[in-house]
């Protein structure tokens, strides 16, 4: 799927929902949980805060936010793929203790037209979502719109590393480990989509410029995992 549309991306994530968590865990050797924790830490939330996770998928980051802001806080998770939201809601029941974690509102909606109010959130996260939206400047404007003044957002995603050896390893790993593992689960073309999506994704520096153009007051991109991943941290 090299030509994409919002509808085809939504259908892709609905199709892979039953195998998504297992593949992320095995293919990242468990590392994706650490990268997600880093993104949540960079938002700087405190107990009682309201947090939003955009493109929440099966709920990993929204559930980390619910632990961070505690039972007095509130979390919204927004995604347009209904099958992913079903997995998220089911996981919340058996993975979170409602006495110590915030309630989570799982909302079906579009990252480019968020179903929430202006200036509502103390912090926003987006994990592996930005690379999949059709209009990155619009997604950044929406994040800025829903943040309270001076609040932060952290955007985690996969990147093409600058180092040619690491880049070569990344492509080898996608071709020889990720796609074959996906093939065994019957979702080959869905995981073949990752490589072209990386090629068209703006670099960390370009993302900083896009965030400043969307009128964030600060924007810093931190490469992690040898530049195969990165977190863009922005302040409204
Ligand atoms: C959690 C991760 C990715 C989420 C993700 C994002 C997408 O855009 C997709 C698109 C289509 C299908 C699936 C996804 C998707 O799952 C990150 C880790 C999972 C990756 C599948 C593994 C990639 C590994 C990298 C090449 C780096 C290798 C380092 C490893 C520690 C050896
Ligand atoms: C790779 S998954 C990431 C899920 C989760 N955040 C994680 O880190 O595991 C990307 C998610 O973004 C969602 N998504 C992509 N474009 C979207 C959009 N325009 N509006 C809402 N959700 C979107 C997909 O449905 C999918 O669940």
Automatic annotation (TrEMBL):
In the UniProt record, the signal sequence range is none
The keyword Plastid appears for this protein: no
What the entry lists under Pfam families is as follows:
Ubie_methyltran (PF01209)
| Alphabetical list of Gene3D superfamilies matching this protein | Vaccinia Virus protein VP39
Name the InterPro entries on file: MenG, SAM-dependent_MTases_sf, UbiE/COQ5_MeTrFase, UbiE/COQ5_MeTrFase_CS
| Keyword list, A-Z | Methyltransferase, S-adenosyl-L-methionine, Transferase
The pathway where this protein functions is: Cofactor biosynthesis; phylloquinone biosynthesis
- Any one of the GO BP annotations: phylloquinone biosynthetic process
Record-linked SUPFAM superfamilies:
S-adenosyl-L-methionine-dependent methyltransferases (SSF53335)
**EC number, as in UniProt:** 2.1.1.329
Q: Which top-level enzyme class is recorded in the Swiss-Prot or TrEMBL entry?
A: transferase
Domain of life, per UniProt, equals: Bacteria
* Molecular functions per Gene Ontology: 2-phytyl-1,4-naphthoquinone methyltransferase activity
**Can you state which reaction this protein catalyses?**
demethylphylloquinol + S-adenosyl-L-methionine = phylloquinol + S-adenosyl-L-homocysteine + H(+)
Annotated coiled-coil positions are none
Which function does this protein serve? Methyltransferase required for the conversion of 2-phytyl-1,4-beta-naphthoquinol to phylloquinol.
Give the protein family.
Answer: Belongs to the class I-like SAM-binding methyltransferase superfamily. MenG/UbiE family.
Which NCBIfam families does its entry note?
MenG_MenH_UbiE, PRK00216.1-5
> What is the name attached to this protein's record?
2-phytyl-1,4-naphtoquinone methyltransferase
Query: Lineage, please?
Result: Bacteria, Bacillati, Cyanobacteriota, Cyanophyceae, Leptolyngbyales
Q: Which gene encodes it?
A: ubiE
